[in-house]
């Protein structure tokens, strides 16, 4: 396979629902937070693999709008862990040329976490090797509603006409406006659902579900998912014959 061909078969944007930490810990008789801690290593590995392989963007779902419904102690420990990990991983991310941006509603987060997120984004702003997006207090419906609200405000201010609101206009207001649409979505942990992750950008994504629990997800399985993706025929509404005729 030529490099050109390999490149076309590589997703530009991979989005991952990192699920199964709690069950991984429970299977070992450990508290759930131990599973969340063990979930950091696969994040490191996949960030490194993605940038080595030439993937443009990687979006990771770390805390959903709905995860506040968990027991308060798990929520507290999770945010403590998220804050610590952002800080401890930052130098390595920066050195590898990763640009980190957070997507999600920040107002509910503690000032300390908000400050760390802001600092991480500032420090890595000029990097361009891999666009890393971490979804924190994120919900796909929240994202679309925010976009709608901002567009409505612009219409009310007279800066935009209602008839100018089309798919591109909505797309440009979403949290992932600056990266390509998702090509490959991976969910670990055995559930076949989207759980309010990026909704708009999954419109034509290939969906890869695996029973592997997130802390056990390896670079080797990531590469398996990428190989599976490479074998998909992305028809975007056309027929397979049309695509084969076009080469
Ligand atoms: C995913 O693992 C991590 C977060 C949602 C924060 P879970 O904590 O959902 O693990 P399971 O699904 O209970 O095993
Ligand atoms: C989705 O996992 C959210 C993250 C991975 C951060 P959940 O474990 O919260 O999903 P549901 O609630 O089982 O659908
Ligand atoms: Mg879960």
Q: Any chance you could write out the topology, listing elements then pairs?
A:
Blueprint: H1 3-8, E1 13-17, H2 21-26, H3 32-38, H4 40-53, E2 57-64, H5 72-95, E3 98-103, H6 111-124, E4 130-138, H7 140-156, H8 167-173, E5 184-187, E6 206-209, H9 219-230, H10 240-246
Parallel strand pairs: 1-2, 1-5, 2-4, 3-4, 5-6
Helix pairs in contact: 3-5, 5-6, 7-8
Description:
46% of the residues lie in helices and 15% in strands. The radius of gyration is 19 Å and the shape is globular. It is α/β, with parallel strands linked by helices and 247 residues long. The chain has a single domain, classed as Decaprenyl diphosphate synthase-like (Undecaprenyl pyrophosphate synthetase, 3-Layer(aba) Sandwich). It has a six-stranded parallel sheet, with helices on both faces. The longest helix has 24 residues, at 72-95. One 3-methylbut-3-enyl trihydrogen diphosphate (IPE) binds next to α2.
Contiguous uncertain segments of 5+ residues: 1-6
Hetero ligands? 3-methylbut-3-enyl trihydrogen diphosphate, magnesium ion
- CATH class call: Alpha Beta
The structural class is: alpha/beta
Assembly state here?
single chain
**Number of helical stretches of at least 4 residues:** 10
Distance from first to last alpha carbon: 15 Å
Report Rg: 19 Å
Report mean pLDDT, rounded to a whole number: 96
Q: How many domains, in number, for the residues? A: 1
CATH level-3 fold name: Undecaprenyl pyrophosphate synthetase
What proportion of the residues form beta strands (DSSP E)?
A: 5-15%
Number of strands: 6
String of helices and strands: HEHHHEHEHEHHEEHH
Any guess at the CATH architecture? 3-Layer(aba) Sandwich
Largest sheet: 6 strands, parallel
- Specify the overall morphology: globular
User: Reading side by side through the largest sheet, how are the strands ordered?
Assistant: 3-4-2-1-5-6
Question: Helix share of residues?
Answer: 40-55%
Question: CATH homologous superfamily name?
Answer: Decaprenyl diphosphate synthase-like
